[in-house]
Amino acid sequence: MGNIKLVPFTGDQAAAYAMKQIEPDVVAAYPITPQTEIVMSFSQYVADGKVKTEMIPVESEHSAMSACVGAAAAGVRTMTATSANGLALMWEIVYIAASTRLPIVMPVVNRALSGPINIHCDHSDTMGARDSGWIQIYCENAQEVYESTIMAVRIAEHRDVLLPIMVCQDGFITSHAVEGVQLFDDKMVKDFIGEYKPRFSLLDIGNPSTTGPLDLQDFYFEHKRQQSQGMRNALTVIPEVFSAFEKTFGKKHNLTDGYKLDDAEIAICVLSSTAGTARGVVDKLRKEGHKVGLLKPRVFRPFPKDAITKSLSGVKALAVFDRSESFSSQGGPLFTEVEAAFYDEKSHPSIINCIYGLGGRDIFESDIEAIFRQLIDIAKTGKVKEKIQFIGVRE
Protein backbone atom coordinates (compact mmCIF):
# COMPACT_ATOMS: atom_id res chain seq x y z
CA MET A 1 0.00 0.00 0.00
CA GLY A 2 3.00 2.35 0.10
CA ASN A 3 3.68 4.80 2.88
CA ILE A 4 0.60 5.97 4.77
CA LYS A 5 0.87 8.53 7.56
CA LEU A 6 -1.64 10.03 9.99
CA VAL A 7 -1.51 13.80 10.50
CA PRO A 8 -3.70 16.31 12.39
CA PHE A 9 -5.57 18.27 9.70
CA THR A 10 -8.63 20.43 9.43
CA GLY A 11 -11.01 19.72 6.59
CA ASP A 12 -9.65 22.76 4.76
CA GLN A 13 -6.07 21.57 5.20
CA ALA A 14 -7.07 18.11 3.97
CA ALA A 15 -8.49 19.64 0.79
CA ALA A 16 -5.38 21.76 0.28
CA TYR A 17 -3.07 18.78 0.79
CA ALA A 18 -5.03 16.74 -1.74
CA MET A 19 -4.63 19.66 -4.15
CA LYS A 20 -0.89 19.68 -3.45
CA GLN A 21 -0.62 15.99 -4.34
CA ILE A 22 -2.79 16.45 -7.43
CA GLU A 23 -0.65 19.46 -8.43
CA PRO A 24 -3.08 21.00 -10.91
CA ASP A 25 -1.65 23.14 -13.68
CA VAL A 26 -3.76 26.16 -12.69
CA VAL A 27 -5.57 27.27 -9.54
CA ALA A 28 -7.51 30.52 -9.72
CA ALA A 29 -9.20 31.39 -6.44
CA TYR A 30 -10.42 34.10 -4.11
CA PRO A 31 -10.59 33.71 -0.31
CA ILE A 32 -13.90 33.59 1.52
CA THR A 33 -14.73 32.35 5.02
CA PRO A 34 -14.75 29.45 5.87
CA GLN A 35 -12.94 28.31 2.70
CA THR A 36 -10.02 30.75 3.04
CA GLU A 37 -7.74 28.19 4.71
CA ILE A 38 -7.82 26.03 1.56
CA VAL A 39 -6.52 28.81 -0.67
CA MET A 40 -4.13 30.02 2.03
CA SER A 41 -2.61 26.57 2.61
CA PHE A 42 -2.31 25.77 -1.07
CA SER A 43 -0.76 29.15 -1.89
CA GLN A 44 1.87 28.38 0.75
CA TYR A 45 2.73 25.17 -1.08
CA VAL A 46 3.11 27.23 -4.25
CA ALA A 47 5.27 29.86 -2.50
CA ASP A 48 7.49 27.14 -1.01
CA GLY A 49 8.03 25.60 -4.42
CA LYS A 50 6.36 22.33 -3.46
CA VAL A 51 4.10 22.45 -6.53
CA LYS A 52 4.53 23.91 -9.99
CA THR A 53 0.93 25.11 -10.16
CA GLU A 54 0.23 28.50 -11.72
CA MET A 55 -1.61 30.25 -8.88
CA ILE A 56 -3.80 33.11 -10.13
CA PRO A 57 -4.96 35.62 -7.49
CA VAL A 58 -8.11 37.30 -8.78
CA GLU A 59 -10.38 40.15 -7.70
CA SER A 60 -13.55 38.09 -7.19
CA GLU A 61 -15.04 34.63 -7.38
CA HIS A 62 -16.66 35.50 -10.72
CA SER A 63 -13.14 36.15 -12.00
CA ALA A 64 -11.85 32.97 -10.37
CA MET A 65 -14.29 30.73 -12.21
CA SER A 66 -13.79 32.72 -15.42
CA ALA A 67 -10.04 32.11 -15.21
CA CYS A 68 -10.67 28.43 -14.48
CA VAL A 69 -12.89 28.14 -17.56
CA GLY A 70 -10.19 29.73 -19.71
CA ALA A 71 -7.46 27.50 -18.29
CA ALA A 72 -9.51 24.29 -18.58
CA ALA A 73 -10.56 25.16 -22.13
CA ALA A 74 -6.87 25.64 -22.95
CA GLY A 75 -6.37 22.00 -21.95
CA VAL A 76 -4.84 22.04 -18.48
CA ARG A 77 -5.91 20.49 -15.17
CA THR A 78 -7.67 23.22 -13.22
CA MET A 79 -9.01 23.65 -9.67
CA THR A 80 -10.48 26.32 -7.41
CA ALA A 81 -12.37 26.54 -4.10
CA THR A 82 -15.17 28.65 -2.64
CA SER A 83 -18.06 29.05 -0.21
CA ALA A 84 -21.57 30.52 -0.10
CA ASN A 85 -21.61 34.10 -1.42
CA GLY A 86 -18.49 33.33 -3.42
CA LEU A 87 -20.30 30.49 -5.17
CA ALA A 88 -23.25 32.81 -5.76
CA LEU A 89 -20.95 35.41 -7.35
CA MET A 90 -19.62 32.66 -9.65
CA TRP A 91 -23.15 31.76 -10.69
CA GLU A 92 -23.01 32.76 -14.36
CA ILE A 93 -19.68 31.02 -14.91
CA VAL A 94 -20.60 27.94 -12.85
CA TYR A 95 -23.18 27.12 -15.53
CA ILE A 96 -20.72 27.88 -18.32
CA ALA A 97 -18.12 25.53 -16.82
CA ALA A 98 -20.60 22.64 -16.82
CA SER A 99 -22.14 23.45 -20.19
CA THR A 100 -18.75 23.56 -21.89
CA ARG A 101 -17.88 20.18 -20.29
CA LEU A 102 -14.80 21.36 -18.42
CA PRO A 103 -13.60 18.95 -15.67
CA ILE A 104 -12.84 21.58 -13.03
CA VAL A 105 -12.66 20.32 -9.44
CA MET A 106 -13.83 22.74 -6.74
CA PRO A 107 -13.82 22.06 -3.00
CA VAL A 108 -16.79 23.94 -1.52
CA VAL A 109 -17.07 24.68 2.19
CA ASN A 110 -20.80 24.84 2.86
CA ARG A 111 -21.97 28.09 4.38
CA ALA A 112 -25.32 29.86 4.62
CA LEU A 113 -26.14 32.29 1.84
CA SER A 114 -26.92 35.88 2.78
CA GLY A 115 -29.06 37.54 3.83
CA PRO A 116 -29.06 38.16 6.66
CA ILE A 117 -25.31 37.73 6.46
CA ASN A 118 -24.09 34.55 8.10
CA ILE A 119 -20.74 32.77 7.90
CA HIS A 120 -21.78 29.43 9.42
CA CYS A 121 -22.86 26.12 7.98
CA ASP A 122 -25.86 25.14 6.02
CA HIS A 123 -26.22 23.67 2.53
CA SER A 124 -28.10 26.52 0.85
CA ASP A 125 -25.10 27.44 -1.30
CA THR A 126 -24.48 24.12 -3.07
CA MET A 127 -28.14 23.08 -3.02
CA GLY A 128 -28.89 26.31 -4.85
CA ALA A 129 -26.47 25.10 -7.53
CA ARG A 130 -27.79 21.54 -7.66
CA ASP A 131 -29.19 21.95 -11.17
CA SER A 132 -26.17 23.76 -12.61
CA GLY A 133 -24.71 20.59 -14.13
CA TRP A 134 -21.96 20.02 -11.56
CA ILE A 135 -21.45 16.66 -9.89
CA GLN A 136 -21.76 17.05 -6.11
CA ILE A 137 -20.04 14.90 -3.47
CA TYR A 138 -20.81 15.54 0.23
CA CYS A 139 -18.24 14.64 2.91
CA GLU A 140 -18.76 13.74 6.55
CA ASN A 141 -15.23 14.41 7.78
CA ALA A 142 -11.75 15.54 6.75
CA GLN A 143 -10.73 12.04 5.64
CA GLU A 144 -13.59 11.94 3.18
CA VAL A 145 -12.69 15.45 1.98
CA TYR A 146 -9.12 14.35 1.29
CA GLU A 147 -10.03 11.13 -0.50
CA SER A 148 -12.99 12.59 -2.41
CA THR A 149 -10.90 15.46 -3.78
CA ILE A 150 -8.42 12.97 -5.21
CA MET A 151 -11.15 10.80 -6.74
CA ALA A 152 -12.99 13.82 -8.10
CA VAL A 153 -10.19 14.51 -10.56
CA ARG A 154 -10.43 11.08 -12.12
CA ILE A 155 -14.24 11.19 -12.22
CA ALA A 156 -14.43 14.65 -13.78
CA GLU A 157 -11.86 13.88 -16.46
CA HIS A 158 -13.39 10.56 -17.53
CA ARG A 159 -14.24 10.72 -21.25
CA ASP A 160 -17.81 9.57 -20.58
CA VAL A 161 -18.38 12.30 -17.98
CA LEU A 162 -16.37 15.52 -18.59
CA LEU A 163 -18.24 17.51 -15.98
CA PRO A 164 -17.00 19.74 -13.14
CA ILE A 165 -17.28 18.54 -9.54
CA MET A 166 -17.98 20.19 -6.18
CA VAL A 167 -16.48 18.38 -3.18
CA CYS A 168 -18.53 19.68 -0.25
CA GLN A 169 -17.76 19.84 3.46
CA ASP A 170 -19.55 21.54 6.36
CA GLY A 171 -18.28 25.01 7.21
CA PHE A 172 -16.35 25.21 10.52
CA ILE A 173 -17.80 21.85 11.67
CA THR A 174 -15.51 20.00 9.27
CA SER A 175 -13.46 22.77 7.69
CA HIS A 176 -11.93 24.04 10.95
CA ALA A 177 -12.07 20.97 13.20
CA VAL A 178 -8.77 19.11 13.59
CA GLU A 179 -8.77 15.33 13.27
CA GLY A 180 -6.38 12.60 12.25
CA VAL A 181 -6.23 12.20 8.48
CA GLN A 182 -4.50 9.30 6.73
CA LEU A 183 -2.36 10.65 3.91
CA PHE A 184 -1.23 8.58 0.97
CA ASP A 185 2.10 8.53 -0.81
CA ASP A 186 2.52 11.35 -3.34
CA LYS A 187 3.47 9.03 -6.18
CA MET A 188 0.51 6.74 -5.52
CA VAL A 189 -1.83 9.72 -5.80
CA LYS A 190 -0.17 10.96 -8.99
CA ASP A 191 -0.30 7.49 -10.53
CA PHE A 192 -3.96 7.10 -9.54
CA ILE A 193 -5.16 10.32 -11.17
CA GLY A 194 -2.81 9.95 -14.15
CA GLU A 195 -1.84 12.58 -16.68
CA TYR A 196 -4.60 14.84 -17.95
CA LYS A 197 -5.11 14.37 -21.68
CA PRO A 198 -7.83 16.76 -22.85
CA ARG A 199 -9.93 15.75 -25.81
CA PHE A 200 -9.97 19.35 -27.08
CA SER A 201 -7.65 22.27 -26.40
CA LEU A 202 -7.90 25.85 -27.59
CA LEU A 203 -4.10 25.87 -27.78
CA ASP A 204 -3.98 22.88 -30.14
CA ILE A 205 -3.70 24.93 -33.32
CA GLY A 206 -3.27 21.78 -35.41
CA ASN A 207 -6.78 20.72 -34.45
CA PRO A 208 -8.75 23.95 -33.98
CA SER A 209 -11.91 23.84 -31.86
CA THR A 210 -14.47 26.27 -30.54
CA THR A 211 -15.52 26.54 -26.90
CA GLY A 212 -18.59 28.41 -25.65
CA PRO A 213 -19.99 29.69 -28.97
CA LEU A 214 -23.38 31.26 -29.58
CA ASP A 215 -25.67 28.23 -29.56
CA LEU A 216 -29.23 28.96 -30.65
CA GLN A 217 -32.14 26.73 -31.66
CA ASP A 218 -30.00 24.76 -34.10
CA PHE A 219 -27.72 22.95 -31.59
CA TYR A 220 -28.37 24.14 -28.01
CA PHE A 221 -30.84 21.33 -27.25
CA GLU A 222 -28.47 18.64 -28.54
CA HIS A 223 -25.63 19.96 -26.41
CA LYS A 224 -27.83 19.97 -23.31
CA ARG A 225 -28.88 16.40 -24.06
CA GLN A 226 -25.21 15.41 -24.27
CA GLN A 227 -24.53 17.17 -20.97
CA SER A 228 -27.42 15.25 -19.40
CA GLN A 229 -25.96 12.00 -20.70
CA GLY A 230 -22.61 12.86 -19.10
CA MET A 231 -24.37 13.14 -15.73
CA ARG A 232 -26.15 9.83 -16.31
CA ASN A 233 -22.83 8.23 -17.23
CA ALA A 234 -21.39 9.48 -13.94
CA LEU A 235 -23.68 7.05 -12.08
CA THR A 236 -21.60 4.26 -13.63
CA VAL A 237 -18.22 5.98 -13.66
CA ILE A 238 -18.26 7.09 -10.00
CA PRO A 239 -18.56 3.51 -8.63
CA GLU A 240 -15.83 2.43 -11.07
CA VAL A 241 -13.49 5.11 -9.71
CA PHE A 242 -14.47 4.21 -6.14
CA SER A 243 -13.57 0.58 -6.89
CA ALA A 244 -10.22 1.54 -8.42
CA PHE A 245 -9.51 3.72 -5.38
CA GLU A 246 -10.21 0.81 -3.04
CA LYS A 247 -7.86 -1.46 -5.00
CA THR A 248 -5.09 1.16 -4.86
CA PHE A 249 -5.49 2.57 -1.35
CA GLY A 250 -7.61 -0.01 0.47
CA LYS A 251 -10.34 2.53 1.30
CA LYS A 252 -13.94 1.74 0.32
CA HIS A 253 -16.46 4.30 -0.90
CA ASN A 254 -20.04 3.97 -2.13
CA LEU A 255 -22.70 6.21 -3.64
CA THR A 256 -24.47 5.87 -0.28
CA ASP A 257 -23.23 4.70 3.11
CA GLY A 258 -25.62 2.71 5.26
CA TYR A 259 -25.30 2.17 9.00
CA LYS A 260 -27.19 -0.72 10.61
CA LEU A 261 -29.75 -0.75 7.81
CA ASP A 262 -29.83 -4.51 7.12
CA ASP A 263 -32.81 -5.13 9.40
CA ALA A 264 -33.85 -1.54 10.07
CA GLU A 265 -37.53 -0.65 10.22
CA ILE A 266 -36.87 2.99 11.10
CA ALA A 267 -34.22 5.22 9.47
CA ILE A 268 -33.00 8.72 8.88
CA CYS A 269 -31.28 10.01 5.75
CA VAL A 270 -28.79 12.86 6.13
CA LEU A 271 -25.79 14.40 4.37
CA SER A 272 -22.32 15.32 5.63
CA SER A 273 -21.19 15.82 9.23
CA THR A 274 -24.57 15.29 10.91
CA ALA A 275 -24.35 11.62 9.96
CA GLY A 276 -21.59 11.27 12.53
CA THR A 277 -23.81 12.72 15.26
CA ALA A 278 -26.68 10.46 14.24
CA ARG A 279 -24.67 7.24 14.52
CA GLY A 280 -24.44 7.61 18.28
CA VAL A 281 -28.22 7.93 18.47
CA VAL A 282 -28.65 4.81 16.34
CA ASP A 283 -26.38 2.89 18.72
CA LYS A 284 -28.31 4.10 21.76
CA LEU A 285 -31.70 3.11 20.34
CA ARG A 286 -30.36 -0.22 19.12
CA LYS A 287 -29.40 -1.02 22.71
CA GLU A 288 -33.03 -0.35 23.65
CA GLY A 289 -34.12 -2.92 21.07
CA HIS A 290 -35.31 -0.57 18.33
CA LYS A 291 -34.46 -1.53 14.75
CA VAL A 292 -33.14 1.83 13.60
CA GLY A 293 -30.57 2.77 10.97
CA LEU A 294 -28.94 5.58 9.04
CA LEU A 295 -28.38 6.34 5.36
CA LYS A 296 -25.78 8.90 4.28
CA PRO A 297 -25.80 9.75 0.57
CA ARG A 298 -22.24 10.53 -0.55
CA VAL A 299 -23.29 11.82 -3.95
CA PHE A 300 -26.23 14.15 -4.55
CA ARG A 301 -25.61 14.88 -8.24
CA PRO A 302 -26.10 12.63 -10.06
CA PHE A 303 -28.86 11.51 -7.71
CA PRO A 304 -28.30 7.84 -6.72
CA LYS A 305 -31.97 6.81 -6.86
CA ASP A 306 -31.45 3.06 -7.10
CA ALA A 307 -28.88 2.94 -4.30
CA ILE A 308 -31.17 4.92 -2.00
CA THR A 309 -34.35 2.94 -2.65
CA LYS A 310 -32.50 -0.37 -2.35
CA SER A 311 -30.91 0.64 0.97
CA LEU A 312 -34.25 1.75 2.41
CA SER A 313 -36.44 -0.99 0.90
CA GLY A 314 -37.28 -2.56 4.28
CA VAL A 315 -37.89 0.67 6.17
CA LYS A 316 -41.40 1.52 7.40
CA ALA A 317 -40.77 5.12 8.49
CA LEU A 318 -38.08 7.51 7.29
CA ALA A 319 -36.97 11.05 8.18
CA VAL A 320 -34.97 12.97 5.58
CA PHE A 321 -32.86 15.72 7.12
CA ASP A 322 -32.19 18.86 5.05
CA ARG A 323 -29.73 21.57 6.04
CA SER A 324 -31.35 23.91 3.53
CA GLU A 325 -34.85 25.09 2.64
CA SER A 326 -35.98 25.03 -0.99
CA PHE A 327 -38.85 27.47 -0.36
CA SER A 328 -41.07 25.33 -2.58
CA SER A 329 -43.50 24.66 0.31
CA GLN A 330 -42.84 20.97 -0.45
CA GLY A 331 -39.80 20.46 1.76
CA GLY A 332 -36.03 20.58 1.40
CA PRO A 333 -34.12 19.44 -1.71
CA LEU A 334 -32.90 16.08 -0.37
CA PHE A 335 -36.40 15.25 0.90
CA THR A 336 -38.18 15.99 -2.38
CA GLU A 337 -35.65 13.89 -4.32
CA VAL A 338 -35.88 10.94 -1.93
CA GLU A 339 -39.67 11.05 -1.87
CA ALA A 340 -39.78 11.16 -5.68
CA ALA A 341 -37.35 8.22 -5.84
CA PHE A 342 -39.97 5.99 -4.20
CA TYR A 343 -42.78 6.98 -6.58
CA ASP A 344 -42.45 3.92 -8.81
CA GLU A 345 -41.53 1.52 -6.00
CA LYS A 346 -44.06 -1.16 -5.02
CA SER A 347 -43.67 -0.25 -1.36
CA HIS A 348 -42.25 2.79 0.32
CA PRO A 349 -41.83 4.14 3.84
CA SER A 350 -43.84 6.91 5.41
CA ILE A 351 -41.50 9.88 4.94
CA ILE A 352 -41.16 13.12 6.87
CA ASN A 353 -38.81 16.04 6.29
CA CYS A 354 -36.70 17.61 9.04
CA ILE A 355 -35.20 20.97 8.12
CA TYR A 356 -32.45 21.79 10.59
CA GLY A 357 -29.22 23.64 11.25
CA LEU A 358 -29.81 26.71 9.07
CA GLY A 359 -27.15 29.37 9.59
CA GLY A 360 -25.09 27.01 11.73
CA ARG A 361 -27.76 26.26 14.36
CA ASP A 362 -26.58 23.25 16.35
CA ILE A 363 -28.38 19.95 16.16
CA PHE A 364 -28.05 17.72 19.21
CA GLU A 365 -28.35 13.99 19.75
CA SER A 366 -31.52 14.68 21.72
CA ASP A 367 -33.06 16.35 18.64
CA ILE A 368 -32.27 13.34 16.47
CA GLU A 369 -33.50 10.92 19.14
CA ALA A 370 -36.82 12.78 19.33
CA ILE A 371 -37.26 12.34 15.58
CA PHE A 372 -36.43 8.64 15.81
CA ARG A 373 -39.05 8.19 18.53
CA GLN A 374 -41.56 10.04 16.36
CA LEU A 375 -40.72 7.63 13.52
CA ILE A 376 -41.25 4.64 15.82
CA ASP A 377 -44.78 5.91 16.46
CA ILE A 378 -45.36 6.51 12.73
CA ALA A 379 -44.23 2.95 11.96
CA LYS A 380 -46.72 1.59 14.50
CA THR A 381 -49.72 3.73 13.53
CA GLY A 382 -49.01 4.58 9.88
CA LYS A 383 -50.07 8.16 10.64
CA VAL A 384 -47.95 11.24 9.92
CA LYS A 385 -49.02 14.29 11.91
CA GLU A 386 -46.55 16.81 10.46
CA LYS A 387 -44.77 16.02 7.19
CA ILE A 388 -42.38 19.02 7.10
CA GLN A 389 -40.81 20.03 10.40
CA PHE A 390 -38.28 22.64 11.47
CA ILE A 391 -35.98 21.15 14.10
CA GLY A 392 -34.45 23.28 16.86
CA VAL A 393 -36.08 26.54 15.78
CA ARG A 394 -37.75 28.96 18.19
CA GLU A 395 -41.43 29.46 17.44
Structure notes:
The chain contains 13 helices and 15 strands. Helix 10 packs across helix 13. The relative contact order is 0.12. 40% of the residues lie in helices and 18% in strands. Strand 13, helix 12 and strand 14 form a beta-alpha-beta unit. The strands form four sheets. Strands 9-11-10-13-14-15 form a six-stranded mixed beta sheet, with helices on both faces. The radius of gyration is 21 Å and the shape is globular. It has 395 residues and is of the alpha/beta class.
Structural class: alpha/beta
Give the SSE order as H and E letters: EHEHEHEHHEHEHEEHHEEHEEHEHEHE
Q: Count of DSSP helices?
A: 13
Indicate the percent of residues in helices.
Answer: 25-40%
What is the terminal separation in angstroms?
Answer: 54 Å
Strand order of the largest sheet: 9-11-10-13-14-15
Q: pLDDT average, as an integer? A: 97
User: Which spans of ≥5 residues are poorly predicted at pLDDT below 50?
Assistant: none
Radius of gyration: 21 Å
**Largest sheet geometry:** 6 strands, mixed
Strand content: 15-25%
The shape is globular
Q: How many distinct beta strands? A: 15
Write the layout of secondary structure elements.
Elements: E1 5-9, H1 11-22, E2 26-29, H2 36-47, E3 54-57, H3 61-73, E4 78-79, H4 84-89, H5 91-99, E5 105-110, H6 124-128, E6 135-138, H7 142-156, E7 165-170, E8 179-183, H8 186-193, H9 220-249, E9 256-259, E10 266-269, H10 274-287, E11 292-297, E12 299-301, H11 305-311, E13 317-322, H12 333-341, E14 350-356, H13 365-381, E15 388-391
Parallel strand pairs: 2-3, 2-4, 5-7, 6-7, 10-11, 10-13, 13-14, 14-15
Antiparallel strand pairs: 1-8, 6-12, 9-11
